[in-house]
Design goal:
homotrimer, 136 residues, Jelly Rolls, three-stranded antiparallel sheet, 8 strands
Chain lengths: 136, 136, 136
């Protein structure tokens, strides 16, 4: 397992971690298989979406901020219930295909760390399973 | 990895791909393990839900269309921000158990490709990992 | 694959199943790999979030109940469309890293079975893939 370090600069932010995940795969010795990208936090998640136009991420975050306001009628005392709720929708893990020792993503797909209670230094865990040889 | 082809006929549509995924598994040589069903698009996703009553899928899509309207105050210039946003909630992959060389699903569960910006011809990737023998 | 049994006591409820999943892993012979926690139902899901303060789960469930009301303008005849819809957002599976034969979770993370149409006796499937030895 490889641990990535991600530094968020705002309370709510999507950060492209595709290259970091790809780099992490290099030393794992898995040529064909699947890769789990896992966020070990409860106020941040991970998703896959378009990276070409930054407006897509802005629209996504604006939607979630509108649906789950920061200040609301919440019971949790820490003032970040909105972040916990958003993580349930977004998810804590993604499962991605590995082919030829590389992440196999769609043309427009990028992997985004989703910060909902930053700024903070966060971790992302990457774990690959499969076979070392190229033959399936 | 096997690539499935899925043809959507409407802008927003859930398409049952269970049989296609099951067929794809047949040649993968994995008898016991897990299977990733992965959508390599950023305006379509995959989910698991009830297939017996088509009204369930209609209710699901009606909910998402109401929560994330097609036309809204979005920044992305392509006019499909709603589709990108829905994919974040629905997800781009599902992880399913393989037993005896077959998908193991619950009684009422079916796998649905979720089109949010059709009609289009789309791909779904299926990748299995595990062992060839039946012994765990 | 190990099948866990989970008994919900309310219509809508989050139940911490972390210990049950950890116990299930013990006999699977996978020391390093990933673990799929899979809910074979269409009106219940699984998520990972904070377990220290029970108010977090209350806030999560209150949010989903508000966003997707039990009684609404639904087509499905069984009166539980809200449960089917919530499962799409929450998800039917989680993928978790296994290290040293144990689940590797973040400090505050717990695995929650999410009941949306209880009370019922439910199943959760746990399947691990990877290698028996500690070397990656």
């Amino acid at each position: 397992m490889v641990t990535l370090s991600v530094r968020s600069g705002q309370r709510v932010q999507m950060i492209d971690i595709t290259q970091q995940v790809q780099d992490a795969l290099r030393d794992m010795g898995v040529n064909e298989g699947i890769c789990a990208v896992y966020v070990p936090h409860t106020t941040a998640g991970v998703t896959i979406n378009e990276g070409a136009d930054p407006a897509v991420c802005q629209d996504i975050m604006a939607h979630f901020s509108e649906q789950v306001p920061h200040r609301g009628n919440y019971r949790h005392y820490e003032g970040n219930s909105d972040a916990h709720i958003k993580v349930v929708s977004v998810g804590s893990s993604e499962t991605i295909v590995i082919q030829g020792g590389q992440l196999r993503l769609g043309t427009w797909q990028r992997i985004f760390f989703c910060e909902f209670d930053g700024p903070r230094t966060r971790s992302v865990w990457v774990k690959a399973v499969g076979v070392a040889s190229a033959r399936e």
